Amino acid sequence: MTAHLKMDKPDHRHRLDHMAQGVIGQPLDRPEGPLKVTGTATYAHEWQVAGMCHGVLARASGIGPVIRSDAEVVLAMPGVLAVITDERLLRNPAQGTADAAPVQGTDIAAYVGQPVALVVAETFEQARHGAQRLGLIIDVDDMAVTDPETAVLETPKGKQHSQGNLAAAMANAAHSVDVTYRTPAHSSAAMEPHAAIAMWDGDMLTLRGSYQMLKYNRNELADSLGVSPENVRILSPYVGGGFGAKLGIAPEAVAAAIAAQKLGRPVAVALTRQQVFETTMRRSETRQRVRLSLDEGGQLTGIGHDAWVSNLPDESFSEPVTQATRFLYAGDNREIGHHIARVHRTCAGSVRAPGEAVGVTVLENAMDELAHVAGIDPVELRKRNIPDRDPETGKPFSSRRFAEALDRGAERFGWSERRAPGTRREGEWLIGIGMASAARVNALMESKARVTLNPDGRAVVETDMTDIGTGTYAILTQIAAEMLGLPVNQVSTSLGDTDFPSAAGSGGSWGAASSGTSVFLACENLRSQLAQRLDCAEADMTLKDGQAVFDNRVQSLSDILDGDSLTAEGHIEPGATSEAVRQATFGAYFAEVAVSAVTGETRVRRMLGVFSAGRILNAKTARSQFLGGMTFGVGMALTEELVHDPRDGHIVNHDLAEYHLAVNADVPQIEVEFLEERDDWASPLQAKGVGELGICGAAAAITNAIFNATNVRVRDYPATLDKIIAHL
Amino acid sequence: MQTKLTINAQAHTLEADTRTTLLDALRFHLGLTGTKKGCDHGQCGACTVLINGRRINSCLTLACMHDGDEITTIEGLGTPEAMSTLQRAFVEQDGFQCGYCTPGQICSATAMLDEIKAGWPSHVSDDLLADPDLSDIEIGERMSGNLCRCSAYPNIVDAIRDAAGTDSA
What we know:
Number of strands of chain B: 5
Helix content of chain A: 10-25%
CATH topology of the largest domain in chain A: Aldehyde Oxidoreductase, domain 4
Oligomer: heterodimer
Strand content of chain B: 5-15%
Number of domains of chain A: 3
CATH topology of the largest domain in chain B: DNA polymerase, domain 1
Number of strands of chain A: 31
Strand content of chain A: 25-35%
Distance between the termini of chain B: 50 Å
CATH class of the largest domain in chain A: Alpha Beta
Strand order of the largest sheet of chain A: 4-6-2-15-12-13-14
CATH architecture of the largest domain in chain B: Orthogonal Bundle
Shape of chain B: globular
CATH architecture of the largest domain in chain A: 2-Layer Sandwich
CATH superfamily of the largest domain in chain B: [2Fe-2S]-binding domain
Radius of gyration of chain A: 26 Å
Number of helices of chain A: 17
C-alpha cells in the first residue's frame, strides 16, 4: 500500500499533536547511541571483507596535461596489483542532487591535488608507497588562472535582481553604509575521511561508502561507470559527518569500483585527510559589497548585496550568497548582484548552509555598522525592518517568529547591559557583546519510506535516508512511535541502503521534514489498515503503548494483527506550498567576547541562539544541531580559512593542524532555545529544517561583539589577532 | 614482523609490515574498527587508545614498537549492553552526533580523569602543585586534542562532568 501526498495545501490538522504516545519532540537519546559510543557502529571503511585489497589515489602536483607516469616502476613494487588511470575517474565530486556523473578524466589536471591515478596493492602500506612513488609528469600550464581577483567573471542574468532605485535611495538616505567584506574559502572537514569499499558480484556492484544522498549517489555512480543504476547498491548506514562534503559521489567511490572490477576483488579506497581538503568541495571564498540606506525613522529604504564567488570551469554551482538577503528585511529599493570567477582551484560546492552561512553573516555585519552610524540599537533596527511579506515577491511568510526570537534572545542574554564600543575592560581583556539575525531558506523534497508492523506489534522503518549525525535514527523512530502508539523501543529504524525506498537524503536542511513526512504518511496508512480491522474510523481510534482504544474497548496491536504483518509505503512530493508562500527559518544569536588588549586574541565567553524553525522533533538532537552550527560560526569568525598559494592555487593548509577548527577549549557552554512553532505550509509534521540555521549569521554576532569590545571592525574574515592588534 | 600485543586483556600475535601503525594494525589486521582514522597525522585525536593506561594517538606510533604492551581500545571499555559510566554519560548528554570522533573522545576522557586524579596540572591550572579541579575550563583544555566537527563540545564537557560525579563549575 502506498500513501502518496503532494504538498499542494497547508496541513492544519497538526496530527502529531493529537496522538497519545507523547514521544514527539521529546529529548530522547539517539537509538544508535550505544553503538557509536562503544565503537560498534560500522562506518564505510570498516567492513571486514574477505580478499579485500587497498587503493590509494595519486594526486596531480600541477595544473595542465598529464603527459606520462612511470607506472611500470610502481607495478614492480612489492604487493602492487594495479595502477589505474581510467578515463572514468572523477575530476571532483558531483554537486549535491546532480543525479549524473560530474566531470571525468585524468588527461588534464584542472587543479592541484586532482586525483589522476589509483594504485592498488595487497596492503594499505604498499598501496600508499606506490601512490607516493608514482611519478606523474605534468606539462604545467603557467597561464592557468587561479586567482579569483584576476579571473574573467561570469554574471548570469538569472542571478541578478533589481527593483526600485537603490542609487537614489542611498543618495537620499538619512544614514547609509556601503561596505565590502571578504570571507575565505572553508572546508567541511567532517571527521570521517571519504571512503568506499567496492565489490562486484557478476555485473552487480555493492559499494559501502560515506555519502549523504543515496538516491542521487546511486545514479551518479552508475552514470560515472556507464552501468545501469539497477546494478548498483550503495550502503551508508553510518556517516561520520558530511556538512555538504558527501552530498555527491566522489572520486574514491568510482576509483574503487573500477579497480574492483578490473581485479575481480573487493577494493577499499579512503581519502587521506590532505585529499579530503584538496579533492572534496570547498566553500567558495566571497567578496561581498553591502549597501544599506535608512530613513529618519529607522526604516530601511534600500538594500544592495553584490557577491563575487568562484568555481572550476564546467561547474554549475555557485555559492548563493544573497539567498536570504532577498526576504530578511524590508526596503523598496533592492539590488542583488552575483558574479562567478572561473578559477583552477579545488571545486567549490555546498558546505553547511551554502549561501546564508557567509551571506547572512556579512549582511548582519553591515546591519551592525548601520545601527552604529544611525545610533539605533541593533536589535531595534532589525525589529523595525521585518517585512510584512516577502519584499521581492509579495508572498506571505509561512510562519515566522523572528521578532520574538530577537526579543527573547535580548532578554535572556542581558542585552540591555550592552555599553558603548570600547568602554568595558577587565584587566587585560576588552569585553563586548554583539548580536546577529539568523535566516535560512526551507525546502521539502521528494522522499519515500516503508513502515512494517510485525505480528508482535513492533514496527520497522526502512528508507535509504542517511543519518550524518543529524539525528535521523532518533526522529524517524519517534515519528513512527507517535503515530503508531508504540514505546520507542518497539520501533527499529534502518537507514542508508539503496535497497530501501529512496529518500530525500541529508542536505539543504530538508532531510528531517522530508523523510519524516514519508514515515508519517506510511504510518497514517497503517492506522487506516488497523482501523479497518477494528471496523472503526481511523480518527476514532487511539493508539498508545501498543494498544488500540476505540469504541470504549481496548485491544493490543498483536491481537489486532492476529499473526499478520501490515506494511505501507509513504511518499511525499513537494507541491504548491513550496511556491505559494515564502518558507524560511529564523532566529537571533547573541555573543559575548573578551579580546586581549595585549595580543588581540578573541575568546568567546558566552553565546546564545534563539530559533524559530517549526516543530522540533527531538529537543536533544535538534539542540545538538544548533550547537554544531553555532560552533561552525565560532570557527568562521575566528580561525577557519583555506589558504590558496597565489602561484598555482593549491591549498596550503590542507590538514587539521593548519586549518583551524574550533576545539573544545574555544567553545563555551552555548545556550540554545527554540520557540514553539508549527508551520502548516512546510510539511504535515509542521517541522522545518534545523541543520544549517545555527551557522547562518552566527559569526557576525561574534565579530559584532569584537567591535563592541574594541572599536575595531574586521571586514576580512577570520578575525585573527593580527587584524585586531594593529588597531588597538 | 611479529609483535605480541595484549589488547583489551586478550593476547594477540600480529604479523604486519614494519610500516604498519598501531591504528592500522587495530583496524585492518585485528578487526577492531572502533578506533577511528580521522587524519593519520596526530592532529584530530580520533584514534586515541590507552597504552599501559595512558592515552596516545595510535596513528603516530608503529605497531611493532609495542611488543609486550597492554592496549585498551574503545571495545575494551564497554559494550552496547554494558556501557562504561563515561559511555553512558555520552549517550545521555548527546556528547556526539555523527559518532566518528566519539571512541577517541571517550578513550581520551577515560585517561584524562586518571590524569586529574594523579594530580597532573594543565596549561590552565593556576597552581601547578595543587590537586587540579575538574572544572569546565580544565575539561575543555585537557580534551582539546580531540576534535569534533559536529561540535558536541559543550555536551562532551557535560558528559565528562556527569561521569566524574562533579557539579558544573
